[in-house]
Amino acid sequence: MGVVGDPVAHSRSPAMQNAAFAALGLDWVFVAFPAPEGHGRAAVRAVLDLGIAGLNVTMPHKADAAAACDDLSTEAERLGAVNTVVADPDAVRLAGHNTDGEGFLRALADEGIDPTGRRCLVLGAGGAARAIALALGGVGASVTVAARRLDAARAAATLADGNAVELANVVVDECDVLVNATPLGMHGEPPPIDATRLRSGQFVYDTVYPAETPLLVAARQQGVACAGGMGMLVHQGALSFRLWTGSDAPLDVMRAAALDP
After folding, report:
1. pTM for this entry
2. Given CB 3.0 to 4.6 Å as the disulfide criterion, which of 29, 43, 95, 186 pairs with 35?
3. CATH topology of 2-98+232-259 equal to that of 101-228?
């Protein structure tokens, strides 16, 4: 087993998955496979030749992974992106799944947040944002996607039958749940919106992990409930674990491994 990406050395997936395998007594191992951009499809197809049971796929290869798979889940097909690959027992076909959206919803549930019927503002229009928008739309949230490029925001919003807006025109205080699905904040960059407009009663989720981003700092300073991206990471990994093994993942074990420096 392994995770394919570029870069991938920073990934917490090997620590999480290996801890989970050990906890269930499985003689499996999970490693990081660096693959340069443009080589994602070949890396995924190599699963069949190498006898690997499956993969996680991270940036920039999720679209290439979808193209490499023989079968796609409904979510993966709609998104055109795969983060979990499962080889069939005969090593003939590859099935592609996308667990990012459901992982996000489960992370929200851990925080006591039900987005159904709530106004959700998703910042960004990349792979994570698209998966989150699709998941939110699927549970009946009212979704607005904000991005620098309005066409990209519209494409993501369409997945949720939602609305699109340019980042420059975002009205922060009109949403109930704000999700930062951009990488901004990973290296201390300021959030892409005016965080001073956050208000009591909102919930802020930042998909960046494990950093304490400026957006989270601003939210806490203003008394706004918030959470970082570790929960989404753990839950999407646990869903992948279930697809590979057929067993429920030991969430507490995976969470502890992900947090262990």
Report:
1. 0.94
2. 43
3. yes
Contact 111, 225 (CB under 8 A): yes
Question: pLDDT tier at 120 (50, 70, 90 boundaries)?
Answer: very high
62 is catalytic: yes
Q: Of these residues, 62, 97, 106, 255, which one is catalytic?
A: 62
Q: What is the pLDDT of residues 85-96, one digit of tens each?
A: 999 988 899 999
Do 203 and 111 touch, CB atoms closer than 8 A? yes
Q: Where are the domains of the chain?
A: 2-98+232-259, 101-228
Residue 261 in this model has a pLDDT that exceeds 80: no
**CATH for the stretch 2-98+232-259:** 3.40.50.10860
CATH class of 101-228: alpha beta
